[in-house]
Amino acid sequence: MNAMKNRAARALSMGVAAVFVQILLVGCSALPAPPVRPVLYDFGPGLQAPAASAALAPLAPLALETVDNASLPDGVSLVYYRLAYADAQQLRPYQAARWSQPPQQLMRESLQARLGQRRAVIGTGGALATARVDGLPPAVLRVELEEFSHVFASPAQSAGLVRLRATLTQPSAQGENLVAQRLFVAQQPAATLDAAGGARAIAQAAEQVAQQVADWLEQAGR
Description:
elongated, single chain, nine-stranded mixed sheet, Rossmann fold, 2 domains, alpha/beta
């Protein structure tokens, strides 16, 4: 009789323990999952050794204004894509991907790094008031970023697209004179059809555009 009672007690205790474990598991599964931190992307480490162009004769100093962003709200760091084959007018954000800085800031840093290989690049604040080139203030480069996205031409083909408008002016005692203006566009194929592939392709397109702007300035004699 005692043995039967002991077995019954053990069975009851095991059953209670099993129910308790199930309650714990249900409680844990009901807890909200921790938020997924978005992956941050930038343009990479940049130059890690002096460029070959650094050995060439230096060019005249240039003032570079803060890049404006015509396509995205100010301060937004989302990585965007477009489905050109479905609805090219809609910008769609990657939910788990962010730029480390707003695109206009990344683009400005890319331009400054490329132009700064052969010239002094200054801001348009106090330094511009005292800088002189042959007795005149340096030319001013203003850039408006119009597109900065991962564009899908089809479900199986995509590219990073960067488009910007550059305006070059020359300050004078009477104001600023327009020297030249040009639209620059660059596309780089994406190796993968996701945020990582799009971010790399956009960074490569931005670098290509920065090189195009540098070549254009030299052709303009600036």
